[in-house]
Amino acid sequence: METTLDHISETLQAQGQPRYRINQVRTAWFTQPNWDSVTTLSKQLRQDLAQQFSWLSFPTVKVFNSPKDSTQKAIITLADGQKVETVNMPNSRDTRTVCVSSQVGCGMGCTFCATGTMGLKRNLTVDEIVDQVRYWRWQASDVPITNVVFMGMGEPLANSDAVKQAINILINDCEIGKTRIVLSTVAFPGSLKRLVLDADFPDVRLAISLHAGTDETRGKIVPSHKRQTIQQIKEGIEAYLAARHNRRHHVTLEYVMLLDVNDMPTEAEALAKTFKHLSHQIKVNLIPWNQTDANLQRSSEQHMIVFQDILEQAGIPTTIRYSKGLDISAACGQLVVKPLS
Ligand code: SF4
Predict the structure, then answer these.
(1) C-alpha 41 to ligand 1 mean position (Å)
(2) Do residue 123 and residue 252 come from a single domain?
(3) Which residue from 260, 279, 332, 334 has the highest number of Cβ atoms inside 10 Å of its Cβ?
(4) pTM exceeding 0.85
(5) 101, 102, 112, 115, best to mutate for ligand 1 pocket (most atoms within 8 Å of CB)
(6) Are 218 and 317 found together in one domain?
(7) Phi, psi for 288 (deg, rounded to 5)
(8) What's the pLDDT tens digit per position in 31-77?
């Protein structure tokens, strides 16, 4: 899967340009905002390259700023007119986390997720994934991006070849550490097994979109679960941890809290029973559901606290995580691009 940068390198090589010239372009590609800024190259060479290669793989970006918490959301129009969203969130210590999309829409159809209502339109290319980070890098160049989370639109493991290559580029060229990249997956049947067997897939942190303690409940809200069991997901997590675990590396179970759907104590008890023995290697994030068009309600504070208590009593570290960017529909599960929006 060749990227624009590969094509640029091939072009420069074919022109007989020295190796250091190719390295200059590679360095600038991840630090500069456009061809004009690549002043290490002659003006003529810059102009020639600009005529052949767009600096970004997408032509249009519309940015929305949250006045409440400095979160920014960008709606990106891709070269074929499809749209995806990416979010740039401030961290506590003058750094930023970028949330990237890996597909246009998503075929997994989780009932609580706005993206799931779009269906899958297509996979993103390596360039289209990496360029979300490149774009935010120079949008606010004074605050470094230290973390990248694959929690935007799409199921990353359903586009795993492009996602794997994009992650390797983020690690090697954007200097984002492996343990600062989180891949969030619904763990559809077979996906964790393939991930564990793929030795080239970087050992990033995993977040499993679990959202239920029992198969019956998960099957109702995560349609892709119908052909597997939570037991099998647990085995996949154990295999991933056995293959990739180190002290800074843990797996997060994501759990969106839906009133009277999955927030009952029985679900927490089932979850605790299944994952108790992994309590030193996993943690649970309880995520208050963010409003979409779905006919669902967020759990009450009281339900969430009871749920948290049950897990903590089983020794499983559990936090209640409120999303950023709610006021601009940039929060977890809210990313959706309506046709012609
Ligand atoms: S939660 Fe993730 S896997 Fe499920 S529909 Fe939304 S984007 Fe797809």
Answers:
(1) 43
(2) yes
(3) 332
(4) yes
(5) 115
(6) yes
(7) -55, 130
(8) 999 999 999 999 999 999 999 999 999 988 899 988 887 889 999 99
